[in-house]
Amino acid sequence: MALYEELKTKFPEIVKEGFQEVDGEVVVCNREGFLDLITWLKQEKGFIHLIDLCGVDYLGYKPKTFEERFEVVYHVYNLDEKKLLRLKVRVPEEDPWQYSITSLWKEANWFERECFDMFGIVFKGHPDLRRVLMPEDWKGYPLRKDYPLFSEEEDWEPYKVLLEKYKRRG
Amino acid sequence: MSLVLEVNKKQKGKDSWEEPFYLNMGPQHPSTHGVLRLFLELEGETIVNCDPIIGYLHRGIEKLAENLNYNQTIVLSDRLDYISSAANNVAFALAFEKLLRLEVPRRAKLIRTIVSEMARICSHLLWLATHALDIGAMTVFLYCFRDREWLLNIYERICGARLTHSYVRVGGVRRDFEPEVIEELYRFVEEFPKRITDYETLIDTNRIWLKRTKNIAVVSTEEAFNLGLTGPCLRGSGVSYDVRKFRPYDAYSEVEFEVPIGQNGDTYDRYRVRMIELRQSNWIIKQCLDRLSETEGEAVLAENSPDLLMPEKVREVSAQPHPKLGVMFKPKEKEIVPVGEAFASIESPKGELSVYVVSDGSSRPWRLRIRTPSFVHISAISHMTKGHMIADLVAIIGTLDIVLGDSDR
Question: Do residue A50 and residue B339 have CB atoms under 8 angstroms apart?
Answer without folding.
Answer: no
